[in-house]
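Category: protein sequence paired with discrete backbone structure
Discipline: computational structural biology
Format: plain text, a pair of labelled lines
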Amino acid sequence: MADPPAAQSTSVTDSAATSVDWETIQASPDFAKLRHALRAFVFPTTVGFLVWYFTYVLCAAFARDFMNIQVFGNITVGLLFGVLQFISTFLIAWFYARHADSKFDPLADKLRGQIEGDAR
């Protein structure tokens, strides 16, 4: 009985992947540029979001009077902060996608071309 098509294509990919010197790729300047670009975006963004998130949580826990201030109608500062948590999450995802398209993907495509060219 023959292997399913997905398993066959995986074995072809595995055999091509074993012929690539991954340590050389990892040590290459192009990989270092990709890693630096990714880290330069991800780490500050993560720290900024965590500070924003924990500020919200700590204010909700310890600054209840502040969070209960009514901005207009029955809308409070706490409700606005909560909604802004969702908005900031979607904005970060959108900004990451745009940033990846312009910065990470060209570097990754270049590396992929080198790897696939070496594997053939």
The beta strands are 70-72, 75-76. The longest strand covers residues 70-72. The radius of gyration is 23 Å. Helices lie at 5-18, 22-27, 29-62, 64-67, 77-119.
